[in-house]
Amino acid sequence: MKTFVSAEKAVCADEQDLSVLRAFVEDELMIRPSLGDQFRVGFFSADHSSQTDSSEIIEIKEMTNVMRILGKAFNSLRKDFLMYKNIIKGEYEENIEKHVSNLWRHINETAQSIEANHKKKLTMIRESFRQQLADAIAVIKTQYEGFYSEKINAFITSEAQNTFSMKLQTMLNKIREKELTIKSLEAQMVEHQNEALRRFQLMLGEEEMDTETIKEENSQYRQQIDKLQIKIIALEDAVKRKDNTIEKLDTDMVNVKKKLDKDQTTIVMLTAAYEKLTNDFTKEREAAINMNIKHKKEMEIQMALSEKQDKQAAYSHMWVTSSMEPWDG
C-alpha cells in the first residue's frame, strides 16, 4: 500500500491530479471484476495482485461457474454411485446369505436323510439276523429239550457210556449163559433120547417086562422131552429179543451220533453267520463314521470359504469406501 501511494505521488504533480487519479482508479475497480474481496488492481499491470489480464476475467469466471456446476454434478453422481453400490452390495449379500442358507439346509437334510436311512438299514439287518439267530437257537433248544435230551444224557457223558457198556456186557454174558444152557439141554435131550431108545430096546429084548411099566416110563420120558423143548424155545425167544434190543440200541446210537454231528454243523454255521453279521456291522459303522467325518470336513471347508469371501467382500467395501470419500475443496 505504501508502494501504491508513493507511485501515485510520483505520477501526479499535485493533489488535484491525485484525486482525479484515485476517482478514475475507483471507477475502474467498480467496473472491472475482482478475483477476491481483498484483491486490488494497480494502475500499472506490474502493480496488479495477479498477472491475469482483464480480458481473461470473464472466461475465468465462466470456467469457475462451469467447474462449480461440474463439481456439484460429480458430487451428485458420486452419491448416486455410492447409493447404487450399497444397493447392489446389499442385494448381493442377501443373495449370498440366501444361497448359503439353502446350501446349508440342503446339506443338513441330505446328511440327516443318509443317517436316517443308514440307521433304518442297520436296524432292519440287526432285527433280521437277531430273529434268525433266535429262531435257530429256539429250534436247537427244542430239539435238545425234547426228544434228544435223554439220548444225549445217556450217551454223551462218560458215566452213561460206562453204564451202557456194562449193561451191554451183562446182556451178552447172559446170552452166552443161555446159549450154554441150551446146548447143555440139547445134549441132555439127546442123551435121554438115546437112553430111552436103549432101554426100549432092552425092554423089547426082555419078554418078562410088563407092558404097563414100559408105557409109564415112555410117558415120563416124553414129558421130560417136552419140558426141555419148551425151555429151549423160551431161551431162543429170549436170545432173539436180546439181539433185537442190541440192534435197536446200536441203531439209536448211530442216529443220535448223526444228529449230534448235524447239530454241531448247525452251530458252526450259526457261529459263522454271527461272526459275519458282526463284521458287516463293524464295516457299516466304520463307513458311517467316515461319511460323517467327510461331511464335517466339507462343511468346515465350505464355512472357511464363506468366511474368506465375507472378508474379501469387507476388504473390497472398505477400499471402495475409502476411495470414494468426498473431496475437501
TrEMBL record:
The keyword Coiled coil applies. The keyword Coiled coil applies. This is Uncharacterized protein C10orf67 homolog, mitochondrial. The gene is C2H10orf67. Residues 32-141 form the DUF4709 domain. Residues 168-252 form a coiled coil. Keywords: Coiled coil.
